[in-house]
Structure formats: C-alpha cells, structure tokens
Amino acid sequence: MNKSRRDFLSLCLKGGMSAAALTSLQLQALSGSIQARSFSNYKALVCVYLYGGNDSMNMLVPLSGEPRAWYEASRQNLAVQGATVLNPTSEFEGGVGLHPALNALQPHFEQQSLAFVGGVGTLITPTSLTQYKAKSVPLPQHLFSHNDQQATWMHGQEKQTLNTGWGARLLERLDQGTVFGSNITIDGANPWQTGTNTSAFALSKSGISKINALSGYEPRVEHVRRVMQTLFSEAAHPLAAAYASRLNGSIDHTLHMNSLLEQAPTLTTEFGESSLSAQLAAVAKTISIQSQLGAKRQIFFVSMGGFDTHDNQESTHPALLEGLAQSMVEFQSAMAELNLTEQVTTFTMSDFGRTLTSNGDGTDHGWAGNQLVLGGAVNGGDVHGAMMAQRLDGSEDVGGGRLIPAFSNEQYFAPLARWFGLADSELTELFPNLSHFDAQALSLFKS
Amino acid sequence: MNVHLGLVAFCLTTLVACGGGSSDSGGATDNNSSNTTANANNGQQPSGGTDSPSDDNSGGAVDPSGDLGEGGGDSEPQNAPPEVEVSIDQPEVVKGAPLTLSAHVADPQDTSFSYLWKQLTGPPVELGDVTGPTLTVTLPETYQAQADNYQFSVTVTDAQGAETTTGIEIYASNAMSDIQAAMLLHQGTMGPTLEEVNAATGMSEEQWLADQMALPATYHSPLLENYPERDAPYQINRIDAWWKATLHADDQLRQRVAFALSEIFVVSDANNALKGEPEGMLAYYDLLLEHAFGNYRSLLEAVTLSPVMGTYLSHLGNEKADPERNIRPDENYAREVMQLFTIGLEVLNQDGTVKLDEGNQPIATYSQQEITGFARVFTGWTFAFSARWNRPSRNFSLPMQAFPEYHSALEKTLLNGVVIPAGVGPEESMQMALDNLFNHPNVGPFISKQLIQRLITSNPSAQYVERVAEVFNDNGNGVRGDLSAVVRAIYLDDEARRYGSVLTYQGKIKEPLLKGVQMWRTLNAHSEEGNYFTWNLDDRYGQGPMLSPSVFNFFRPDHQPAELSAQGLFAPELQIANDAAMIGTLNQQYSDLIWRMAERHTTLNPSAIYLYGHSDITLLESNGLSALLNRYNVLYFAGNMSESTRNALIELDEYFSNKSAADRVGQLLFMVSLSPEFNVQY
Fold first, then answer.
1. Are B420 and B314 in a shared domain?
2. Which has fewest Cβ within 10 Å: A43, A370, B341, B392?
3. What is the Cα–Cα distance from A71 to A65, expressed in whole angstroms?
4. Is residue B460 domain-shared with residue B519, that is, in the same domain?
C-alpha cells in the first residue's frame, strides 16, 4: 500500500466514519478483499463512442458494378469518391473502398490489427422487411431516437426496469465490478459503464486533477478532510446522501488515482489536440500504470461528438472521420510503446447508421451501420458481418434508406466479451437477445 | 403587501337580500372590510308596521339603497334595528396573527345591545368570548400558500329585540418567515442574496410571485459588450452578458424560469458554428425570457422560427423533396420538436405517468409517418430578409421567413390523424402544425413535469404533476398554455411549499452552475473592469448556459443514479456529477471562496473576479460564529442546516480560529458549498 493511501485510510479511521460512508476503494483496502475470479493476464476494452449516429455506411463503400451503381443512386452528392481500395480476407461483390478520410487506419488494416464489422444495429430477433412492416416480430423500442438508441447500444439490451450497461455487467460477471480502476471513463458517466453495483471512475482528460482544498499543509488538510467526512456521512435526505457518497468517493478515488498517475512514465507517442486524442492520451496514461493500479480487467469509455450530420455533411463528416482515425492511430502507437497491443482492444459504438438518402446537405437517423475494432488480438484485415447493399427500396430498406441490420449489435458485443474473459455459456446471460442469433457469427479475434 | 384583492360581497344565509353595504366605497385596497348587513325585526316589532317599504316581503325589511337607518316609515316612530359595521384592527391580515374585530353600533333608540359573533367560513378558529362588542381571535398558522378566506358575522340585538347581522370577509395572507422566503427564493431565483431574502420575508408567496412577474424583463442582448477594441462579439461576450443579467437583474424569477426553459428548448454553441453567432444566441435566450410568463404556444412558435434553433436543428434552409436526387426533407427538427419540446415519445396520462395499452405496453406518440409529415412542414424557411433562398441574410436574431417555392406542397400527416392537405403554404402549414402539437394532450403533463423538475423537485408526485397540468390545460379562464399560471401553480403547490405531508425526498440536487451563481450573487462577485469572462465553464461546473453537448441537455429528466435505484428515485443533476466534474466544481468553489475572497488580498488585479465577504466578516467579528451560522442557515440552507452540519462547521472553524475573519469566512463558505445539505434545493 502506498503512502497516500495508507495516510488516507488512517485518516478516515481517525475520523470515525461509519462503514456505510466508506467508498468501494476504502472497503476494498480495509478488508484486503481480492476478487473471486483472478486473472493472470491483463486486458482492456476501450469503447470509442461516436455520438449522434455515425454515417458509418460511408466508411466502407462499394467500388464497382451494381453495388456501386446502387450506392451512387442512393447517396448522390454524398457518395464518397476516391475511396481507398481495401483487400479484406472476405470477398464482397463490388469490392470494398475505405473512406479516404480514414486512410490513416489503412496500415492497421493491412497489418491485420484493424477489422470492420458491417451491417450491425439494434435488433431483438432476426427481422425481415416483411416482418418489420407487419410488425410481426418485436422491434427495438424507439428506433431512430438518439438517446434511446444510445442507451440500447450501451445497455446491450432493451430497456428494463433497472437498466445496466453491458460493460458494467461484463465486469460484474467477471467479479471485477468492485475492483477500483477496472471501470474508467474519460467522458463522464454513461449507461455502458453503469451497473447494479458498479459505476465508472471519471477521470479528467487532463489526467491528474489536483484537489486544491486537500493540498498543502498537512494538519490543515487532515482537519478539512475530517470535517468533510463528517458532513458526508451524516446526510439524511436521500438525494443529499447520494450526492455525498458521490463526492466522498470522488475525492477518495481522485487522490488515489493522482498518486499513481504521478508515477506514470512519459510516453513518447504524441497525441493531437482534439478532444478524442486527449481522452485517449488519458486512457494510455492510465493503462501505463495498470500494474500499480492492480486491475486485471479494465474497460474505458471515450467519446467523440458531432456525428449527427443533418447538414453540411459533405464537409463535416470527412473531418470527423479523419479526427477519429488520427486519434485511434495515436492510441495504437501508444499501446505499441507500452507493449500492450495484444491486450488492449478498441472498438466503436454509435447511436445508429444514417439514411442513405440525403436531405439536401446531410442525412437523417437510420439504423444499421458499420463499426471499427482495433488491436493486436483482433482478427484484422477483414470486414466481418455484411457489406450491406446501399440500395434504396432494397430488401432491407424500411424507408429513405434506413437499413434493417444484418447482424444484431449483441452479436457484435459477444466476441468482445468472450475475448475479455467471459465463457460462451455466460454470453446469453449478459445479452438476453443473443439466443435469437448465432453468437459465434462474428470471429473478431484471432484465436 | 397582501394580495387580495377586491371586495366580495356575500349574502348571509338568513338574509332575504344582501344589504347594499356601507363598505362599497371602501376602496379596493382595503381588502378586509366587506361588511354586509341585514336586519330583521324578529317579530318583536310593532305588528302594525304597514309602512314597511316592502311589505310584500314577509321576511323583513330591506332597503335596497343600503340606507338602513332610514328604512323606517315617515310617520310613527318605531324601533329600528341597530346599524352595525364591523372593523378590523389591522389593514392587512396575516395568518397566525391575533386579530380583533369590533362591532360599531349606531342606534338612536337604544344604548344597550347584545352581541353574538359567529364564524361562517374558513379554517376553524377558536372564537373565545363571542358575546362582546369585540372579538379577538388568532387565525391558524399557514397550511397552504394561498390566502385563507374567512367570513365572520356579528348579530347585534337591541333592547327591544331588533337585530342586525353584519358580516365581514377576511383574507389572511401568508407572511413568509425568513426561512420560508429563503426556500421560495432558492426555487425562484438564480440563487438568493440576503437582501432578497430579507425583502421577501413577511410577504406572501403569492405577492412575491406577482411582484416578480410584474417586473420588466431584463434582456441579455443589451448587455452584450465587445472586448475593448474589437468590433464584433465572441462567445465569451455572450456568456459575460448572461452573468451580468443573472447576477444583477431584479426579475430573478423570470431569469430562473428562462434558464429552466433553456434546458428544455435546448440550443448550444458548444462545438458548432453557432459559436460565431453570440448575438443570435442572446436573441434566442431573450425569446425564452420574453415568453417565460407568456403562452406556451407563442413560445413554441418563437423557438421554432428562431434562426438559431433553425441552425441548431437544421430546419433552416431545409428544402422540399427532390425525388430525382433522392433528396427528402431534413427530419431533425420534426423529430426533436416532438420528442423534446412538446409531447415526448410515449402517450402520457395527465399526471405524467405513461399510459399503457391492453398488453401493458407504452403507446408511441408518433411514427415515421408523422416525422415525414412534420419534416415537410419545416421546409422553405430561411433567414429573415434574405434576398433570395440562395442568398441568405444570415440574420441570426429575427424570426425566419418562408420561401414558398422551397416549401413542400405535398400533404403532411400530423398527430392524431390530422392531415394538412396538399398545396398549403409554409406559414399556414406551420400554424397548423404548431396548433396540432400544442393541442396534443401530452403537452400539459410533459412540459409541466419538466418545469417542476427544473424548478422544484426531481420526483414530483403524480398528483402534483396533474395539478399543474390541469392549469396548463386551462388557466381557469379557458386559456391553454398560460405559462404565468403554470409557473404560479408550480410554486404555490403544497408540494413545492412543503405544506401537508412532506415527501422525504422532496427537492432536487442543485445544478452545479447555480451553486456557483448563488455564491457569486451573495458575495457580489465582480472585477474592477466589470466583466465576467468565464472560460471553461464545462470544466468548472460540468455545464454552462447554452453550452449543452446536445439537444438532450446536460442531463435527462429520467436519470436515475445507481445510489438511488433501490429507492426508485430520479436525480437528473447527478448525471453530470461524475468524479472529474465534482472535483472541478470543488476546485472552482475553493478558488472562489478562499483564493479570491477580496478581503484576503491587499491589492486586486483589475481584470480578475473577486468575491466580497465583508458583510459576513463584519458579522463574524461583531456577533460571533453562531450569528454567522444562523445567517447561513437561512441564506444557504433555507433552514435545513442540521445540528451535525452546524457542529461540523464549528469544528472546522476551531482550526482556523487564530486566522483572520476573512480566512475563517472563506473556509466556512467553502465547506458550506460542498455540504450535502447545501447541495439540495429543498
């Protein structure tokens, strides 16, 4: 146990705090409790959430033949020209072109550490156009609505009485939920990381956030902290108590995290100035102290906004993709520097895909889309799933070029969870609708 | 000041008719003097009273002119009943106060009378001796925000048995205690100052609201100042204007309601092109201020036609379909105006709960068909005074104008099966569509509940929501959407005022920004140069005015933090209470209250903002810690500082007892700012 933590614990014991006011970190340290399921190796999942609904059908475009003709017809002025030719392991009619704004990622595709997952979206059960129109199968609630579809992606299930995120459930399932440092967000609270007894530690993207009130002359700091503890432990109003327990935990966790981050090595990888780069830099820094932190399984959440391209898509979307690619490449290079490429997998989620049709200078809320998975363990160099035909009034088009997903997002999450350590038998417990699909359909990892 | 308001003559049940009353000229300002009088001869009069002016009226004599004393005939003297007026010993009656009513009798024929006082209506009052010429009662304490209405009567009988019964109607208003005033002002201002709490103390809630609503609006646009030597404003300048109004405007209720509206009708210039349009952003905020006590239908129209909203949700410049190019109208505004600004996703009961179908499933309020219909409505609109569609003026302040040739002429399916026929133009389509939205039964509960959550409590009872929704649906005069009535109903409700049984979870977590605002208001934060350039509000508070990351606001009304899931409670504001943000706010409060307490410095940087604690410092120096904590209990805790919090603050101060009073005040305020009880708005 390092000094600040020991000091801190002695401080809260001196303060005579009630056990109920202790944070998970304190309880864990006090009891010396170690998680039931221990892992010898280290793994991390990094979720890059693309807020607003990425027009991800435009990340991968057909190059020739009928698929290209359909594509040009549906996308019109938003059809991507000059796409970079990819040669995925799987063959697709019309070929696969990469949006040139993503070119920075192409080497990772070539080196087989980057894979795409095509044609995924929220589904309860396999759904055909006829079934959709007849409403003869259950459909995800509130399709095309931002916050509802964000929640469905992050929950990995339809709305429940008590909603939990699949990231948090994954940790809890692996008995890592109470391990401090297993669950970290650089972008505030989000449904993906919120579980029954688990919530993410929110790290500032600048990394260390010094607590000025608790810095400086030690007797003063001790006194101030003790008074805080008293205040936090005696809140009676339920909302006040929730606030108090949050703030108490935040202070505790931040002090602890700061003490470790101060020892973090300086990485030579340079990160850009975008928000996503800064967030991923903070993830890289946190991963660099993973052995000191002690969590063997970590999930991270970072995000990028602006994907709700209802207008000016022609100029904004390429810029977004370029920023995304740049940040992901930087992060991958930091992982290489830490020699952790095999242990860290980065993947994307987004609200939904977008309409194939244009509204003049943008697109509207759609359904199926494509996703990215990056990491040394990834079965890269391929497009898993489907290269869906970007064809208006085709067999998957529910109107305006909103495509019914060919694969459910739970099929996409399953291999991520399995790689992270979940047994096949546990997958359907994590993803309740997975039993309606082939859980093995997407082989996103090498082994 | 009392509110009520006018004389309401009433008829005593035993009367044959109302007396004209001696008080009819009593003046509308004197609200508690409505005497009504009736008299009767009660059979003891000489039976030959044939000269009675209304002898066909067997019940007694009434003089419609009210000249009761002269009501007798012109010949034989007879015993006339006494003339009686009732007076009150105070011009304005407040609840819980002792009150003396006096009967003033004029009767030329008698000198001795018997009296009998009665209470006719109103909350039960202990009457005591009811047989004297005066009646002294103590009215009950407050149990509701509205004024209590009482009617008392006195029957005066002269020696010959002629009697007169005179009534008086009394409105007893609340006189808010300092704690009640602080509670109301925490809900109804951007964060009350001591002066504001003191001024409201003794007023009734109704009067405070009425006074606030009567104040002229403080708009933000006129407060916009460029940087020196710059000829155009920046985003920071519009944030500066927001601070100036927020900190200094008198119309605090309007500022607070507009702030709430800015978190429902969300626009944002965080990370988008609107960052370059600070004047437009302020014009948008001003329309929220303008309509805060207006009609919701007008607000909805102003929001919809705002070029800032048009830019944010991309219906500005939205064109009719071009089937050749597979182009269809932009659906963004169509979707969000329904999901967020009017009706929500699911059909609601009037109490805000979700209505379920036979299969116990929620019922969707709209489908893609209605989205498509509304998307067509919102075509053909661009900046006002644009020369041509393709030469937009880029005027971000005036309402958008329509170009009919770019408006969809197709038929448009609206809610509840309403269809705008083909060929209807942009303005008319817009009116029909907004009427259609406005009249959907979801609007009342949907908007009322969110306003309650922004202003009063995160977990309103269904009954509270329903009471407010009823007012939204009809303000009592048949008007739907009257926001002044809605706002009054929200603030005056028993649940908001904590009358009756108080829910243990009543109230809400204060928005982090508003916590900062209150400290800045109470401590008169300012820089010598007079500007409030507050960059990085997001890092400091996790939020800022018109800086939401998306149209879904910083937090959702149904956010349920894990800590409260077992109790089934919501706490929207805790959605942004993540570790990084909480530490950010903690550091901001530390910086404000410790480092930038002006009295701790000998020289001040003219461009830096300082907080001024001299009033607290003086109180601490002259009256001691206990007096200061008493002040804080009212000002910051609205009376909810617990004994343990008080003791914790005393314990804190012990450590700093040999420091300057400015240091001690700063440390105390910092601890107040993070204390759980301060962080709840009760």
1. yes
2. B392
3. 10
4. no
